[in-house]
Amino acid sequence: MEAFVSRKRRRRLSTLDDSLPVTTEDDHNEDDSTDFKLAKLASLHPNEDQPALLEALLSNNGSVEAASSCLGRSAASIGELPSPRKRRAVGQGHQSLLAPFAGSTHPAKKALTKKGKTLHLYAPQDIEAHTPCSIIHNFLPAVEADALLHELLAEAPGFKKETFQLFDRTVESPHTMCFYVDSLDEAKAQQTEYVYNGSYIADVRRTLPEMLKVATKVKSTVNEEIQRRVRTSYPDRKKLKYQSPHPWIPNAAFVNCYDGGGDSVGYHSDQLTYLGPRAVIGSLSLGVAREFRVRRIVPKDDMASDAHTDVSTAADTMGQISIHLPHNSLLIMHAEMQEEWKHSIAPSAAIDPHPLAGNKRLNITYRWYKESLHPRFTPRCRCRVPAVLRCSQRSRENKGRYMWMCHAGYTPGKKGCGFFEWAVFTEDGEPVWQR
Ligand SMILES: O=C(O)CCC(=O)C(=O)O
Ligand SMILES: [Fe+2]
């Protein structure tokens, strides 16, 4: 904090400042620009990411002090804990249906998970009742799944690790991946127009023949599943606010490769920038079976009320659910997933090698890139880079609101401009441009 207080004040940046009310509580600081306030907060809460800091600032009317105490209530309790939290070992055995919920067409009202615990789910009925996902086992005829796996195994040695920025550290994802689109024109546009983590993707490939064939089946199944979910699980049997009423069209895919149990992907929500609100994703697993873990996002305000919650355990407040993803299973992440839950592929101490893939798991996440969210339409930040679309998840006050933000914070070596603008969408999730 000292360093920031004693250093020369930075130039006031306009856009974010305009959207943030300047508080009178912070008497001496009311001239501080928002990025200065963010920097102060970041120095006080190094474990928080920039969006979380910004949300804390927003929901505390721009007061660094109030935002810090809101974020800090949980951090302060670290010292009070007598010992590091002990994780209880969880049985890995297969399970039959969760009897009381079997046959239910509605998601259970009461959370089944508890702080620090992992609930393992295998049966499709349980998965759809307790998570925002549905799963179809043995999705493709066996020969087709094998052909697709062969096609991807031949590609995988050329895949790369993704890099992203965590404050001033550049971090590599602990698995490799590659991006595929359906036409050469689209690949060119992706390489020159679409920005991810502040840079362009150099290696964008054309969807392979087996992938394309399978995409047709994924498309019809995902659309059927969306309709079924609306009928069986959503209030008044209506699609969610901001969810598209149109059929889902898979036109892009990230293919992930996990080579051995050590490869993984940490908890995250998928970027909505080009998919829009309430995105649906079809995720096909091939090769080694792995655990897909999901957990509900808990607003910071709720966590703060738990005296024994610290920053490291906060994520675990509600516990997590592990979904077993065997070879040839299609997982559908429904419209409520990205905004309200996070997901990950957990590292695994032991895996069963697959006859074709050995230690590898290949995964295709089919996505629908919306033309209306092409970067030629979306706002640019002051770094002149298309802004990133995020959903406010951590503060109760702004929960569910969408915002356009400077891409930085995710970009290796870039500092960012602090750009922020609330995003406006129609009921059907189409962007409404304010300019
Ligand atoms: O490998 C998986 O099943 C999930 C991958 C994932 O989360 C992603 O590509 O965003
Ligand atoms: Fe993801």
Can you walk through the features of this model?
- With 435 residues, this protein is of the alpha+beta class.
- It has helices spanning 2-6, 14-19, 34-44, 50-59, 64-76, 124-130, 142-155, 184-192, 209-233, 300-304, 311-314, 337-340; strands at 118-121, 133-136, 160-166, 169-181, 204-206, 252-259, 265-268, 281-287, 290-296, 320-325, 329-333, 341-345, 360-367, 388-391, 402-405, 420-422.
- The strands form three sheets. Strands 2, 3, 4, 5, 6, 8, 11 and 13 form an eight-stranded mixed beta sheet that branches. Strands 1-10-9-12-7 form a five-stranded mixed beta sheet. It has a three-stranded antiparallel beta sheet with strand order 14-15-16.
- The two termini are 38 Å apart.
- Residues 1-32, 73-94, 99-109 and 303-315 have low confidence and may be disordered.
- 2-oxoglutaric acid is lined by residues 254, 256, 265, 270, 283, 292, 343, 345, 363, 365.
Q: Uncertain runs with pLDDT below 50, 5 residues or more?
A: 1-32, 73-94, 99-109, 303-315
Shape: globular
Distance between the first and last residues' Cα: 38 Å
- The pLDDT mean sits at 78
Q: Give the tally of β-strands.
A: 16
- Based on secondary structure, the structural category is alpha+beta
Strand content: 15-25%
What hetero molecules are bound to the protein chains?
2-oxoglutaric acid, fe (ii) ion
List keywords for this structure.
single chain, 435 residues, alpha+beta, five-stranded mixed sheet, 12 helices, disordered N terminus, binds 2-oxoglutaric acid, binds fe (ii) ion
TL;DR of this structure?
The chain is of the alpha+beta class and 435 residues long. The protein has helices at 2-6, 14-19, 34-44, 50-59, 64-76, 124-130, 142-155, 184-192, 209-233, 300-304, 311-314, 337-340; strands spanning 118-121, 133-136, 160-166, 169-181, 204-206, 252-259, 265-268, 281-287, 290-296, 320-325, 329-333, 341-345, 360-367, 388-391, 402-405, 420-422. The protein is globular, with a radius of gyration of 22 Å.
